[in-house]
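If it is no trouble, can you show me the amino acids of a protein and the tokens describing how it folds?
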Amino acid sequence: MLIAFDKLDHRFQNDKVKKYYDILNKKKAGLFCKRLFDFCISLILIILLLPVFLILSIWIAMDSKGGVIFRQVRVTKYGREFFIFKFRTMVKDAPSLGASVTVGEDPRITRVGRAIRKYRLDELPQLFNVLAGDMSFVGTRPEVPKYVKAYTDEMYATLLMPAGITSVASIKFKDEGRLLENSDNPDVTYTKEVLPKKMVFNLEYIRDFSFFRDIAICFKTVIGVL
């Protein structure tokens, strides 16, 4: 559900965000169904995939030093910060050894990490983020705070809904690492070139939001991974 517009953070208080807010405010039933779907399906998947969680955890622990779960601060609905959960696919302390985005054949990625990234198995712990309400199955991928600071007024509209595990932008930019591998400064290239292009699709998703479109995007993601 949406909170009153005048209760939103000052970053959202502009006419461009208000336009998207008014669209979503007319789709309360769809937003309710979205949250109900997120809660029920994430709970079911967590229970069913417990053996997979265990196998991947052992595999990661045997392959390299460091914890099994990687936590990082990201930004979700209304600009709130939270810890996103992923299976660790990089060497220990990887964020301090390079850019915040993963670039092509990033040397920080471990052997096992490369294998589980291929099928996006590293994203499975985000089911707990979905269950908690920090994320949704479909929505704008959560960015780190420093990238959110580069948002234009209109881009803040994407934070009217929870961050997502997948989206149309995620499908179209699934190989974004390769787009950045020739950049001298991947962080700058991402914020100046890649992020604005992804936001075109993210803002379109907000404008055209429907619960059934979410279901379609989930199916497209599965097909894309396979």
User: Anything to note?
Assistant: The chain has a mean pLDDT of 90.
